[in-house]
Amino acid sequence: MPNASEQALFEIVQQAVVHVLNRKVELNENTSLSQEGLDSITTVRLLVELEKKLNIQFQEEHLSLDNFASIRSIINTLDHYGVTA
């Protein structure tokens, strides 16, 4: 069971994904975001959305599509920035 901070971060990322996809989707931490419609353009929109919401700036080494394949991979990437919710 995730701790409260991780659950809050999951919800922030989930809301950002729903916002950039512009539709309701059922997501768990391992859902393939590309299968839900996240492409390169919406990934960039997601990056910008998360940077604004979390007050961070993604470094170039973290800008791989693999880092944005699922909510779990996004949360793992956010760990590099010490992000907590």
Question: What report would you give on this structure?
Answer:
With 85 residues, this protein is an all-alpha fold. The chain has a single domain (4-79), classed as Non-ribosomal Peptide Synthetase Peptidyl Carrier Protein, Chain A, CATH 1.10.1200.10. 49% of the residues lie in helices and 0% in strands. It is built from three helices and no strands. It has helices at residues 4-21, 40-54, 71-79. The chain is globular, with a radius of gyration of 12 Å. The model has no long low-confidence stretch (mean pLDDT 94).
Question: Which keywords apply here?
Answer:
85 residues, single chain, globular, Non-ribosomal Peptide Synthetase Peptidyl Carrier Protein, Chain A, 0% strand, mainly alpha
